[in-house]
Amino acid sequence: MEQRIERFRYDDAVVRLFTGATVIWGIVGMLVGVIIAFQLFMPQLSFNLPWLTFGRLRPLHTNAVIFAFAGNAIFAGMYYSTQRLLKARMFSDLLSKIHFWGWQLIIVSAAITLPLGITQSKEYAELEWPIDIAVALIWVVFAINFFGTMAKRRERHLYVAIWFYIATIIAIAILYIFNNLALPALMFKSYSLYAGVQDAFMQWWYGHNAVAFFLTTPFLGLMYYFLPKAADRPVYSYKLSILHFWSLVFIYIWAGPHHLHYTALPEWASTLGMLFSLMLWMPSWGGMINGLLTLRGRWDRVAADPVLKFFVVAVTFYGMSTFEGPMLSIKSVNSLSHYTDWTIAHVHSGALGWNGFLAFGMVYWLLPRLYKTGKVWSHKMMELHFWLGTVGILLYIVAIYSAGVTQGLMWRAFDATGRLAYPDFVETVMQLMPMYMVRALGGILYITGAILAGVNMIMTMRMAPAKLEDPEAEAPALIGDGSELDPPREGRGAIAWTTSLAWHRIWERKGVLFTVWVAISVATASLFEIIPTFLIKSNVPTIASVKPYTPLENYGRDLYVAEGCYNCHSQMIRPMRHETERYGEYSKPGEFVYDRPFQWGSRRIGPDLHRIGGKYPHLWHVRHMEEPRSTTPQSIMPPYPWLAENDIDYETIQPRIDALLMLGVPYGDVVNNAEQVARDQAKQIADEIVAQGGPDLADKDIVALIAYLQRLGTDIHSGDTAGR
Amino acid sequence: MSKEILDQLLDHDYDGIKEYDNPLPGWWKFLWYASMVFSAIYFVWFHILGKPGVLDSYESDMAAFEASKPKSVQTLGGDALFALTSDSERVGAGREIFVSKCAACHTNDGGGLIGPNLCDNYWKNSDGSPDGVMHTIKKGVIEKGMIAWEPLLTAEELENVAAFVLTLRGTTPENPKAPEGDLYE
Fold first, then answer.
1. What is the pLDDT of residue B72?
2. A488: how many CB neighbours lie within 10 A of its CB?
3. Per CATH, which fold does B78-183 belong to?
């Protein structure tokens, strides 16, 4: 049969857009990171402004570097490589444009809403419901564009990079939608469909797999295209690609509960999280091996080529992080590392090393090709960027590993008489100050490198010819289904056939089948954990004395969420003697049944607050919020003076309670006059503050927040809460 | 076992990228299988055979601690304790403890807030004598929210803070709380 050669053009314009956005948002996201790094030893850097506190800026930093920097890098690399690997222009130029501009609009709306305190408070899923819907729509646009391109491809078989892109698109859609299910109460306030333990479980099923399917699988896909291209070497092992791809897709999903060791999550779930993390170690290293061994025989070139240098460091950090991850998931290791900076060091070795360096290496490889300049403007500047970045990462992670281990050991230290060696939490914070300063310096070095990349990019763009034509390509159209290319089975038995992996070649030409199997892998693993967690009621034993929050307490809780208190304070006392000595009785699953969303937190920059209720008089909280250093001289918490100035928005009390009622919270008689009930309680607390010698704070936000804080963790022992 | 041939190119070509048909590294396969075997054993051990888990080890930690810690701390009492109120060094040390641990409820000058006023002659949880004050400090008033300090402070610290509290009686706090309990002259 005569094969018809088709001529077409790749759409590089959209790749240029995504590449530029990668560098710009990268600098913005890292700048926010550097600011909050400074705030940890200079709390006055919040300037007494609500939108500059650590609690509001930290989500902006994480969302910006994940979804804006890494996100745009992924899209740039995927749009470039997908077209070439499938020998086809993107399915629709219009969809490409909608994808690009829609995504940037989402980033801008995140950058506005997060500092305003509009947040769902679920880590890396902070964006409120209207933006969530926009994210889902744009993701669908992207998926249609990608699978449409796959459908009109001129390459028979799908290359490993494409497998990873498929996994990314499918898994992120599932994860994002199910974790963000929430009932809107107001235009910018929703309540999670899940409560307490279930909410925590869903969040970390998502949170862990955002790392898996947004920061790992797409970047592995990029590695599989750009690394062999830059090195001009064949990929080391096709078999390894197959095995580590499928094992990552299947195993990653299970590992989420390792973020919840020693919490109120059922122990079997926590164990699954640990064991699947251990089994994930080798599949992850499969990617590292394939990356590094592809460079065999090219190490001379690595020394001279900054692009390859970035890739080598990226893949090395990938290997280190994916060893460290399973190690941190071992329960006894986690008992030391959890809630400390160790976790922060771990994610930054992954994010700065693996994601950051792979992205920058890719950008430098793309620039001369996208702008037809033959070279990047300044080779020296690339070299300088590489070294600034590498030293920056090392300073950052060494300092923060030390901080994490130091604080973890101080928390659990007992003296000879069996008492806590450092009973005041702030003592364990003061120890970290020098490490925090070194970390900030590391961050400055890293962002300086990123700024150099920005300069280099702009100068390279200026070298470009006035008119950039889309590059031409040609390939024969596909005829038939390609089954004549399938490996012969030659009477091989079922086992021999399976272990030979030859069948995989058949899957690779069947895009729909391949995608369905990816979806099945992701969904099956999810359901194995999710269904039991939701169905087995005994997983969350109820506690009769635990009652819903009053309308005012709930409003105060919403303030706690909006201020992002969870970024520094956990609400989860683990069953360990040093924790129960320090904070009180360990947290029980039944105590969180009305927590929408859960507020367990993941890092203790300040102490745990689960049993803060009743620990201090109202007036202490008033003074502490106004100026934390008036009650704790060494505190690094920013002041919250606006809480004593802003009035409680009583009109929103009823819709909040109505939404919770729809979610099944048993409010009883309160339901129809939530506002009056809230006013009464606010008056009572405001009067108590005056009686304690404090100012008149009637109807101010702080009264609601105090109502919530004084309730925290007290229900378990109070038979006499009936009067509330 | 015959040595497999390395670096055999496959007939794959994706935009110029080729692939080798190299075997899986042996150590890689070994570690992967080992992680699966370990996981199976671990799960069976803890969740099928029901060996002690996280909460059990917490309980046993606490039991071991309870068994090892001294049941009671020997401190001075009566006149010997009262005599410390004229030792300015010990009273000063007691004030520091009081400010950091007690003031949240009793205020810095003992005027009372959540907890009762310690400067007047009315006492609700003891008779205000040196022994009575020491008893309340050691054992706490659990039902009212005051914790027992005996397990948390050394003998000397308990004496210091008791001595400080005894000096408060008859002083005039800034915002005195209304008297509670019975009058002891």
1. 76
2. 7
3. Cytochrome Bc1 Complex; Chain D, domain 2 (1.10.760)
Mark yes or no for CB contact A418/B32 under 8 Å: no
Q: Does the structure show a pLDDT above 80 at A355? A: yes
Q: Min CA distance, A341 vs chain B (Å)?
A: 23
CB contact under 8 A, B12 and A159: yes
pLDDT digits (tens, 9 = 90+) for A173-218: 999 999 999 999 999 999 999 999 999 999 999 999 999 999 999 9
Phi, psi of A501 (to 5 degrees): 65, 10
Q: Strand, helix or coil at B100? A: helix
Confidence of residue A460 (pLDDT cuts 50, 70, 90): very high
Q: Are B24 and A229 an interchain contact pair (Cβ–Cβ within 8 Å)?
A: no
Out of A6-20, A477-491, A499-513, B160-174, give the one with best mean pLDDT.
A6-20
Among the partner residues A85, A237, A693, nearest to B22 by beta-carbon distance? A237
Percent of chain A with pLDDT over 70: 98
Domain ranges of chain A: 9-472, 551-723
Q: A690 contacts in B (CB within 8 Å)?
A: none
pLDDT value, residue A519: 96
The reported pLDDT for the residue numbered B70 is 65
Contact B104 A267 (CB under 8 A): no
Nearest CA to A441 among A381, A469, A400? A400
CA distance to A176, A207, A223, A425, A463, per residue, from A189 (Å): 18, 21, 39, 33, 48
What is the length of chain B? Answer: 185
- The string of pLDDT tens digits covering residues B109-151 is 898 877 889 999 899 888 889 999 999 999 888 777 787 888 7
Q: How far apart are CA A6 and CA A477, in angstroms?
A: 6
Distance CA A469, CA A372 (A): 9
Looking at residue A429, what is its pLDDT?
Answer: 96
CB atoms within 10 A of CB A267: 17
Q: Answer for the pair A660, A668: CB distance below 8 angstroms, yes or no.
A: no
Q: A9-472 belongs to which CATH class?
A: mainly alpha
Dist CA A247 CA A281 (whole Å): 10
Q: What gap in Å lies between CA A160 and CA A218, rounded to an integer? A: 11
- What tens digit of pLDDT does each residue of A238-274 get? 999 999 999 999 999 999 999 999 999 989 999 999 9
DSSP string, A161-222: HHHHHHHHHHHHHHHHHHHT-EEEEETTEEEESS-HHHHHHHHHHHHHHHHHHHTTHHHHHH
Which helix H or strand E contains A302, and what residues bound it? helix A299-304
Give dist(CA A12, CA A89) in Å, integer. Answer: 9
Of A87, A267, A279, the CB nearest to B35: A279
User: Which residue, among A115, A114, A108, has the nearest Cα to A47 in the 3D structure?
Assistant: A115
How many Å apart are CA A634 and CA A433, to the nearest integer? 11
Contact B55 A575 (CB under 8 A): yes
* CB of A272 closer than 8 Å to CB of A529: yes
Of the partner residues B10, B32, B62, the one whose CB lies closest to the CB of residue A238: B10
Q: How far apart are CA A554 and CA A667, in angstroms?
A: 12
ipTM value: 0.90
Q: Which residues of B touch A424 (CB under 8 A)?
A: 100
A358, A360, A362, A368: CA torsion to nearest 10: -170
Chain A positions in Cβ-Cβ contact with residue B38 (cut-off 8 Å)? 275, 278
**Residue among A239, A279, A586 minimizing CB distance to B39:** A279
Residue whose C-alpha is closest to residue A680's, from A550, A560, A545, A549: A550
The 10 Å CB-count burial string (b at 16+, else e) for B1-38 is: eeeeeeeeeeebebbebebbbbebbeebeeebeebeee
Question: What integer pLDDT is reported at residue A719 of this predicted model?
Answer: 55
Q: Identify the CATH number of the domain defined by range A551-723.
A: 1.10.760.10
